[in-house]
Amino acid sequence: MVEVSSEELLLWIQNVNKEEDRDSLYLLIDLLAGISRAEINSLKINPQKIINMKVSLDSLSKNWTEFIQNKKPIQYLSGCCYWRDLNLEVNRHVLIPRVETQQITDIVLSLISSSTKELLITDLGTGSGAIAISLALECSLWKVLATDIEQNAIDLARKNFKKYSNKDNLQLFYGSWWQPLKKYAGKIDIAISNPPYIPLKVYENLAISVKNHEPQIALNGGVDGLLHIREIIKEAPKYLKKDGWLLLENHFDQAQKVKTLMLHSGFERVEIIKDLYGIGRFTIGRYK
Description:
Structural class: alpha/beta
Number of helices: 12
Number of domains: 2
Distance between the termini: 57 Å
Strand content: 15-25%
Largest sheet: 7 strands, mixed
CATH topology of the largest domain: Rossmann fold
Number of strands: 11
Helix content: 25-40%
Shape: elongated
Strand order of the largest sheet: 7-6-5-8-9-11-10
Order of helices and strands: EHHHEHHEEHEHEHEEHHHEHEE
C-alpha cells in the first residue's frame, strides 16, 4: 500500500483532469488504487487525512496517460471490471462485460421465478464468465455449463468463479459454441449467448478504444452480424429439452431477423426484449 494525503490525491486529480472524462478518471482510481468516487468526495472535508492506495500517484499518472493517448480501456489497464455485484478480472483475451448485458441474468431469473429446482443452464461464449458466474451464484442446485473458443477465457472465467464460490456447479468447456456439450444433447433447460454480432462494416468503424484493444473474435459477427447467431440457433434444437429456452443478445437492429431465424428453427413464444435504453437488445424463444 502507498500512503498519500487527501490533499495530494485531490491536487493530482485537479492537475490531470483538464478537459478529459472525469468518470473514467474516477473509475481508474477506483479499480487501480482502490479508492471509490464516494471516498474521494468525502476527502474534501479532511484534506490532511492520510489514505492508503494500492498504487502510487506516479503509477496512476502512467495509466491515465495510456488511457488518454492510446484509448486503452480503464478495465484493461486495471485488469478488472465491475459487473452487477461482481468485480471480475478481465484481460485482452475477453470482451469487457457491458452494462446492458447484465439484463440477461434478470431475464433468466424471471423465467425461473422463485423456483429452486435443479436446472441445466448453458452460457455459450462465456468470456470472463460474467453471465455464467452470476447464475451459478444464484442457486447451487443450478448446474451451469459455459463454453468458449479461447482457452485463456476459460482459465480466466474459472479464476473469477473461484473468487466468489467454492461450489462445483459451474463447469467450463473449451470449444466452439455447442460443440463441447455433445453429451448434454437434449438435456439443457436454458441456453444463453452474447455472441459476436457486430456487422463487419460497423466493426471496421468502431471506436479505437474497442477495435484496437478488445478481441475481434468476440465482436465481429461477419458480413451481416448474424454468422454466429445463425449457427447457435440452428444447432439449439439438438441440445435443448422440449420447452427449453434460448436467449440471445443481438445488435440494435437485428432483433426481427433473429426472431425469424428462431421461428424457422422450431421455436415458439419468440419475444424481443428491450434493454434499458429501449432498444430490442435480446431475443428469446422456447423450443417446442
